[in-house]
Design goal:
Layout: E1 2-3, E2 10-16, H1 22-33, E3 35-39, H2 50-53, H3 58-61, E4 66-67, H4 81-97, E5 101-105, H5 109-116, H6 141-151, H7 153-158, H8 164-177, H9 181-188, E6 215-222, H10 225-242, H11 244-260, H12 281-288, H13 294-332, E7 339-343, H14 350-366, E8 371-372, H15 375-378, H16 382-385, E9 403-405, E10 410-412, H17 415-422, H18 425-449
Parallel strand pairs: 2-5, 2-6, 3-4, 3-5, 6-7
Antiparallel strand pairs: 1-8, 9-10
Organism: Microthyrium microscopicum
EC number: 2.5.1.75
Protein name: tRNA dimethylallyltransferase
Length: 450
């Protein structure tokens, strides 16, 4: 158990991948502890489209106030961290003013991390819906790399010329914020008494020396891999039965209406890259054209499989963000002991494995209890799960040491990454293939000379 002082400005945060029951727990805790919920899911901020965005319905909300849910138009780009954090901070203060408990919930983990941790300057390159790149980033890789060399030579030097996605992301940070990615990472390493930049968001924490803005209790909703994959596959079938294709059609109608008014809709950004829209585009077009028969059914089956695959990949990215980014941020903030893993693998055991332990820990956190239980007392696998899977290199810029394996066409940025690569099966197979080709060429040369 950990000795603590009861919080004066508490916040509850619920994280986890899609399909783990985050919204349900948030509503239960809000009901029990007089809370209000702040949505921290980028896609659920869009108006309408309850199926594609997987929003909780009005009935499911049970009268609990929800904020930042369905609040932006379909034509708008996804909110950046710089937009989300100040809005959420203002809402937290409004909730406090009503004497209620702010509860953060959502799968856009870089929103929650940036809101809770003062020095958390994160990009959305490892999680969330497939990201909506600026059209300027669709140019050939060599053009993008040259532009990055001009605006941020430090980051350009870090990446291999073939690492298009990483080059895009570094350039995107500059395009979106006007600040170089290398400067952002350097700012994260400034000593605590360094002068803050004018763009820094003012902290609302009662303790300005704390790395956290708020006194936070966090619940990680965890579902074992096989159960989650099956659950997500089934959810896609449920979405189709509930009218997913009709929502896709409504999005096309909205786009057509906007274009008739002379307003161009950028379908490479925002809600237009949400999972389900593009996967069902071909099937929707076939239905709209009045086509029927086995070929159309095949299109539907393929759309379902693509949506299932994309959803599972999305969940995997969400979990990786927690494992590599979020947990490291909590360790740096000395707040790891305030994270509790709840096992939502068995829906039939929800009360005993999720709701009851969450209510018990929350009551201890909010009340006069001077200690919180160990996470392993709530879920025995917690110690393993709450150990970061690797280092967050954005906070270890001093250890960047670029080495490029031209044979495998990859770049390692630390000694550990390089040693891991050269000892990998992939590297050995590539070298074996090169040696085999060289041997065959030598033998052919000898045969020709004979």
């Amino acid at each position: 158990m950990h000795t603590r002082i009861p919080p004066t400005r508490p916040v509850i945060a619920i994280i986890g991948s899609t399909g783990t029951g985050k919204s349900q727990l948030a509503i239960e805790l809000a009901t029990r502890f007089k809370g209000e919920i702040i949505n921290c899911d980028a896609v659920q901020m869009y108006q309408g489209l309850p199926i594609i965005t997987n929003k909780v319905t009005t009935e499911e909300q049970h009268g609990i106030p929800h904020h930042l849910l369905g609040c932006i138009g379909l034509e708008e780009p996804t909110w950046t961290v710089g937009q989300f954090v100040p809005h959420a901070m203002a809402i937290i203060e409004q909730i406090r003013g009503r004497g209620r408990l702010p509860i953060l919930v959502g799968g856009t983990h870089y929103y929650i991390q940036s809101l809770l941790v003062k020095d958390s300057i994160v990009g959305n390159d490892q999680t969330g819906q497939p990201e909506l790149l600026d059209p300027a980033l669709d140019q050939p890789t060599e053009v993008l790399l040259q532009k990055l060399r001009e605006v941020d030579p430090i980051m350009a030097e870090r990446w291999h010329p073939n690492e298009r996605r990483k080059i895009q992301r570094s350039l995107e940070i500059w395009l979106r914020t006007g600040t170089k990615a290398s400067d952002i990472y350097a700012a994260q390493k400034e000593p605590p008494n360094a002068s803050p930049s004018p763009s820094n968001i003012t902290s609302l924490s009662s303790d300005d020396e704390s790395p956290l803005r708020y006194e936070a209790l966090l619940f990680w909703m965890y579902t074992d891999k096989d159960t989650l994959r099956a659950r997500l596959d089934e959810r896609v079938h449920q979405m189709v039965s509930a009218g997913l294709v009709s929502e896709v059609e409504s999005m096309h109608d909205f786009r057509n209406q906007q274009e008739l008014q002379g307003k161009e809709v950028d379908v490479t950004r925002g809600i237009w890259v949400s999972i389900g829209f593009k996967e069902f585009a071909e099937y929707r077009a076939a239905i709209a054209a009045g086509r029927t028969g086995p070929d159309v059914q095949k299109l539907k089956d393929e759309a379902i499989m693509r949506t299932q695959s994309a959803t599972k990949q999305y969940a995997k990215r969400q979990i990786r963000w927690i494992e590599y980014k979020f947990l490291n941020a909590m360790v740096r903030s000395k707040a790891k002991h305030n994270i509790f893993v709840l096992n939502s693998s068995l829906t039939t055991a929800w009360h005993d494995c999720v709701r009851k332990p969450a209510e018990v820990v929350t009551e201890m956190f909010l009340g006069a209890s001077s200690v919180l239980p160990e996470a392993s007392e709530i879920f025995e696998q917690s110690q393993e799960l709450l150990t970061p899977k690797g280092e967050d290199l954005s906070h270890s810029r001093h250890r960047w040491q670029k080495r490029t394996c031209d044979n495998c066409r990859i770049t390692a940025t630390t000694t550990e990454e390089w040693e891991k690569h050269i000892g990998s099966n992939r590297h050995r197979k590539v070298l074996a293939g090169i040696a085999k080709r060289q041997r065959l060429e030598t033998e052919r040369g000898l045969n020709i000379s004979l």
